[in-house]
């Protein structure tokens, strides 16, 4: 990040990874473009990417685009257990004041009796570390018992399993994200099926990482762009929002505009047809479909992002 | 409300506090109120359903007992059975029936597009309707007296620890407990707490960890033979720990209230034949089908041929009880055939009977284990097309890497299942002592053993619990 000094950075999970090739997008936009896409990540990690990778690198991109689905931005708890924990630790997430504010003590109660017990026992011993160590030992024992001619280490065996459970091997229509999501351990991923989170739009700093992302971007002179992806449509190629989601999106769009952010939504785009989708909300990796998606994406966002990316050039292409 | 939640913990503490403060009649009212809160926690309209069946069956049973003529008694009996089966039919099987009929009509060109009817399945409906049916039959046959107290009867139907996923209790076992004063010993409370913790350990450590492996494998579109079987073995661990864990939590909660529920499992994977497996697995359902389907069909009274037919029919219905889906039907039929034909095989090949010493025992346990897991494949694979493709997988074409991965997944799951075996001798002895009301339970040694067991369970739950939770499998039935 420090070396490349990208002008445009895109953040997201497998929704981003299966949609955008940063090199091709850089060709279209004409500016250095970088992607931070981590399968299975959600808003809490996106905040850490913004703070601990982008801001701390000093790269200062002009624009940061965040790819999201429905209520992702105000649902901090989703996927914040298990497989994402090592990355949270690597990015020193628990030490961040914003992290403490969002996941403050009272919320521990919401994660159930066991969460409450664990929270109060953690000063005595470190259950998370113990859990990770014991699980790894169990898995390593299984690997040792099934060497079958290979001397591969545990980490290589884990990688082998990850690849076997990759996106391309999963059943169609599972709505699955866990192909990519399982990058840290072969079997410790969140449930595959994505469901919407709380549908009340709440902008208080205790409720989600959204206000913290907006504040951080303002402080460091970056413009944030939120791009809502079209989830897998029905057989007639339309994606119908629940009334509660429509109201949520209206509130989100107004709030983002008030905060000086950019917002685009491809949900009602009829050119994103069912045939382009594989495995839930992921877009097919076929070249033609990838090109089609990227061209469509660029046509949609260029009128709003070009003035930020190239302040001296006026946006020319109209939105589809 | 689910057992492994803070809500349930707080709920149980509040219920216990109120419960022990009141006399017996008040205690039953507390149980009913608590059960309705527990059951209506998510969908309040379910309460109407359980309320209607309670009133109906209570009234019909009294009607049966007070009937002066056999015809009148029969009318009450069939009304009670009819209402229960109708409720089960509408909520559980109607959508499945319509879907299949319309699919047939569509394939014959008599319809242009198939109908799809989705009716929400109230949790636990299969459990409480079966319990109500058994009550109606027992009263009709004069095995139990009709319960005159609506409070006691409503307690029997709605008792929250076993309402959603059993054990399926009998009126003869439960109603006397609800109609008498509760005597709670200190060792009941101690063992209740340990049962609760042991059940929770089974669920959040063993079942949920194995579920991660099984779910992964069953999400593959192109599984190989070894990988699939790694997943099936993981599912075998998952479903046992999941259901046994639920049952132990139910029994632990009930024991804290001074109520003893029947055991549902007796180390089923140590069975030496499919028939024995069903005497050790989900015992309350197996005995229900034996008493209310198999024996009324004629049981073994009319020769071997009819006995085999009765077994197949009984297991076919048991499969259908588990779910309105073709894979459950196939699964039930498969078990019916196994249970019916195994004794025939044992007559001809001695090692299938109780022969062959220790090696024979190991052979039979392993073979039964494999056959039961073939059944789990049918149970877990909801798509019949995918099931057929799974059954056609060739073990000899799978590369070494697939065997390596499948083996690793299976061994990993079996390691999680290890406590089920390690705790076995302790649990067996304990259950025997509790059953006998043995005074040794009050000794300091048992107190220490219970404290140690509770500490180990708690430590395991906190340090090894799976971060990704899942619902209890039997909630869907």
Strands side by side in the biggest sheet of chain A: 2-1-3-4-5
Number of domains of chain B: 2
- Percent helix of chain B, as a range, is over 70%
Structural class by SSE content of chain A: alpha/beta
How many angstroms does the end-to-end distance of chain A come to?
32 Å
Largest sheet report of chain B: none
CATH superfamily of the largest domain in chain A: SGNH hydrolase
Oligomer: heterodimer
Poorly predicted runs of 5 or more residues of chain A: 175-193, 315-320
Which structural traits does this protein have?
heterodimer, A: 320 residues, alpha/beta, Rossmann fold, 2 domains, five-stranded parallel β-sheet, 7 strands, 42% helix, 9% strand, disordered C terminus, B: 477 residues, mainly alpha, 19 helices, globular
Architecture overview:
The complex is a heterodimer of chains A (320) and B (477). Chain A has 320 residues and is an alpha/beta fold. Chain A has two domains: 8-94 and 195-309, SGNH hydrolase (Rossmann fold, 3-Layer(aba) Sandwich); 104-171, no CATH class. Chain A is built from 13 helices and seven strands. Chain A has helices spanning 14-17, 22-29, 43-57, 85-90, 97-102, 105-108, 113-121, 127-145, 154-164, 178-181, 210-219, 243-258, 287-309; strands at residues 8-12, 33-37, 63-68, 223-228, 262-265, 277-278, 282-283. In chain A, helix 12 (243-258) links the parallel strand 4 (223-228) and strand 5 (262-265). In chain A, helix 2 (22-29) crosses helix 13 (287-309) and helix 3 runs parallel beside helix 11 (210-219). The longest helix of chain A is centred in the last third of the chain and has 23 residues, at 287-309. With 477 residues, chain B is mainly α. Chain B has two domains: 6-178, no CATH class; 186-272 and 354-476, no CATH class. Chain B contains 19 helices and no strands. The longest helix of chain B is centred in the N-terminal third of the chain and has 38 residues, at 70-107. The chains are: A alpha/beta (320), B mainly alpha (477). The A-B interface holds A 81-82, 85, 109, 112-118, 121, 125, 127, 130-131, 134-135, 138-139, 141-143, 145-150, 157, 160-161, 164-165, 169-172, 174, 176, 178, 182, 186-192 and B 4-6, 8-9, 204, 209, 212-213, 215-216, 219-222, 227, 386, 400-405, 407-409, 411-412, 415-416, 458, 461-465, 467-470.
């Amino acid at each position: 990040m420090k070396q490349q000094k990208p002008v445009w950075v895109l953040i997201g999970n497998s929704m981003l990874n299966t949609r955008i090739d940063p090199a091709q997008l850089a060709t279209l936009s004409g500016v250095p473009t970088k992607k931070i896409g981590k399968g299975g990540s959600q808003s809490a990690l996106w905040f850490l990417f913004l703070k601990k990778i982008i801001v701390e690198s000093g790269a200062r991109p002009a624009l940061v685009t965040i790819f999201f689905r429905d209520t992702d931005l105000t649902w901090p708890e989703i996927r914040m257990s298990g497989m994402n924990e090592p990355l949270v630790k690597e990015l020193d997430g628990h030490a961040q004041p914003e992290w403490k504010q969002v996941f403050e003590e009272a919320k521990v109660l919401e994660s159930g009796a066991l969460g409450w017990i664990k929270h109060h026992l953690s000063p005595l011993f470190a259950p998370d570390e113990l859990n990770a160590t014991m699980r790894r030992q169990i898995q390593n024992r299984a690997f040792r018992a099934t060497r079958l001619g290979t001397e591969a280490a545990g980490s290589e065996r884990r990688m082998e399993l990850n690849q076997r459970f990759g996106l391309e091997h999963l059943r169609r229509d599972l709505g699955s994200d866990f192909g990519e999501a399982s990058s840290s351990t072969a079997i410790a991923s969140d449930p595959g099926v994505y469901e919407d989170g709380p549908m009340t739009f709440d902008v208080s700093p205790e409720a989600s990482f959204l206000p913290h992302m907006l504040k951080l971007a303002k402080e460091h002179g970056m413009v944030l762009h939120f791009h809502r992806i079209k989830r897998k449509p029905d057989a007639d190629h339309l994606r119908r929002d629940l009334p509660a989601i429509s109201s949520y999106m209206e509130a989100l769009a107004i709030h983002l505009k008030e905060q000086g952010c950019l917002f685009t939504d491809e949900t009602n785009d009829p050119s994103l047809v069912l045939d382009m989708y594989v495995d839930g909300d992921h877009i097919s990796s076929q070249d033609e479909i990838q090109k089609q998606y990227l061209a469509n994406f660029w046509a949609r966002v260029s009128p709003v992002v070009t003035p930020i990316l190239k302040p001296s050039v006026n946006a020319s292409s109209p939105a589809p | 409300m689910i057992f492994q939640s803070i809500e349930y913990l707080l709920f149980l503490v509040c219920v216990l506090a109120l419960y022990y403060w009141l006399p017996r009649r008040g205690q039953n009212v507390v149980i009913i109120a608590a059960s309705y809160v527990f059951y209506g926690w998510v969908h309040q309209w379910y309460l109407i359903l359980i309320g209607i069946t309670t009133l109906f069956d209570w009234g019909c049973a009294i009607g049966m007992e007070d009937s002066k003529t056999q015809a009148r008694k029969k009318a009450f009996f069939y009304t009670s059975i009819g209402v229960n089966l109708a409720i089960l039919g509408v909520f559980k099987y109607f959508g499945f029936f319509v879907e299949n009929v319309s699919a047939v009509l569509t394939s014959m060109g008599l319809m242009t597009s198939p109908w799809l009817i989705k009716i929400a399945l109230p949790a636990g409906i299969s459990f409480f309707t079966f319990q109500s049916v058994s009550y109606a039959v027992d009263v009709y046959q004069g095995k139990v007296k009709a319960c005159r107290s609506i409070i006691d009867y409503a307690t029997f139907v709605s008792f929250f620890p076993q309402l959603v996923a059993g054990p399926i209790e009998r009126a003869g076992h439960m109603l006397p407990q609800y109609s008498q004063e509760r005597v709670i010993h200190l060792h009941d409370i101690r063992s209740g707490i340990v049962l609760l913790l042991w059940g929770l350990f089974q669920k959040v450590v063993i079942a949920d960890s194995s579920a991660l492996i099984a779910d992964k494998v069953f999400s593959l579109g192109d599984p190989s033979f070894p990988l699939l079987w790694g997943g099936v073995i993981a599912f075998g661990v998952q479903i046992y720990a999941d259901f046994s864990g639920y049952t132990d939590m139910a029994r632990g909660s009930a024991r804290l209230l001074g109520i003893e529920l029947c055991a549902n499992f007796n180390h089923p994977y140590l069975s030496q034949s499919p028939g024995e497996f069903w005497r050790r697995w989900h015992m309350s359902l197996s005995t229900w089908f034996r008493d209310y389907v198999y024996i009324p069909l004629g049981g073994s009274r009319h020769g071997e041929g009819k006995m085999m037919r009765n077994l197949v029919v009984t297991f076919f219905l048991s499969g259908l009880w588990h779910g309105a889906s073709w894979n459950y039907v196939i699964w039930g039929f498969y078990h019916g055939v196994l249970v019916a034909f195994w004794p025939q095989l044992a007559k001809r090949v001695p090692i299938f009977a109780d022969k062959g010493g220790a090696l024979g025992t190991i052979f039979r346990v392993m073979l039964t284990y494999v056959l039961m897991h073939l059944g789990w494949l049918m149970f877990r694979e909801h798509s019949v097309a995918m099931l057929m493709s799974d059954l056609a997988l060739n073990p000899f074409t799978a590369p070494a890497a697939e065997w390596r991965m499948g083996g690793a997944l299976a061994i990993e799951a079996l390691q999680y299942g290890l406590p089920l075996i390690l705790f076995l001798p302790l649990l067996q002895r304990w259950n025997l002592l509790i059953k006998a009301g043995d005074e040794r339970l009050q000794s300091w040694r048992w107190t220490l053993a219970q404290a140690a067991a509770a500490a180990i369970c708690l430590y395991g739950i906190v340090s090894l619990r799976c971060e990704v939770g899942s619902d209890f499998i039997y909630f869907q039935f």
